[in-house]
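Long-time lurker. I teach an intro course on protein structure, and each term I like to show students one example going from raw sequence to a predicted 3D structure in token notation. This year I'd like something fresh instead of my usual example. Would anyone be willing to generate the tokens for the chain below so I can use it in lecture? Attribution to the forum is fine with me.
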Amino acid sequence: MFARFFKPKWQHKDPIKRRQAAIELAQDDPALLTLAQEDESPEVRSTAVSRLLDAQVLSQIVVKERNNEVLQKARSRLQDLICGEVEEAPPLSERIHILDQVDSNGLLEHIARHGNEAELRRRGVMSIHNPEVLAEIGLSDRSVEVRTSAIERIDNISALERIVKATKKSDKRVTQLARQRLTTLRRRREKNQQLSKLCDTIQTLCQKGTYAARQSALLKADREWSQVSEVVDVALKKRYIEAFPRLVELCDRYRNIKTSKQKACHLLEELANALRQEEELSDELEQRMQATLAEANECWNIEGKLEDADEKLLSQRYRRFAEAIIERQTWLHENALAAQRIREFFKKMEMQ
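-- Reply from a regular --
Happy to contribute to a lecture. Here you go:
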């Protein structure tokens, strides 16, 4: 009957009372979660956070908390829970599941360094990238499996060189692995340098270059890319993927222009040869000639320029066949007029 007149201690107006409640409440009591997340007093939230067992709630607090003291306490508690440094920590399988959802580099590095179990530390190692932290773990972790996992993720040559120097007399397995990793990274660096030069060449040729140079670069790029595409870094790969299609487009465009002008020359050549076989300019031949000339003119006037040497050679061919056609057309026309006059003469003779 009197229960409604007396609020529980964790709901008391006095923050000191609520803080004492945070100390006394069972760790799985929902009220403790409420104090940790919602209490207006940082001191109460900090006390409640330090006793939480729910890593998911702690992760949410780390993201949302604005008070630095409470935030640090939540981070510390989360680290201790996942690392298994408190008696009430969840079992290893559950902590590994929690670890797989962590995206804080600082927390991951702490777990990789200080997790109680080797498998937990190894899983932490598999999620971090800092070469200095990985090198430290590769040198000092008490588990050889964790050390080797760390070394396999190092992508910094100087860090690996330090490991080789520090372990060559004390840990042959780690030394050998570090040397193998060094060899891989040095080869990758050479490939990256090779591709960087190739990208520089392609980008330069996209701005200025002959068709022969561009075509040669395309063949070289295609050959070399097949050898390095799996080991280059992301930035270089992006450069190549952007530059290569542009060079292909320029080569295709030049080839299309040249092919079109070559076709124009071929059409005129065929027409000139055909006219040489005729003795008289008929209406049918006239129509065929006009259609061929129109097609050749369209092919010749394709948009775009050729290099000077190609332009000069094709222009000479084009003019030579055009002049031959004009000359033969004139002859045929004159021949047709002469033939017409002869026909008219014989017609008059027949009428007399």
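Some talking points for your students: The mean pLDDT is 89. Residues 253-351 form one domain.
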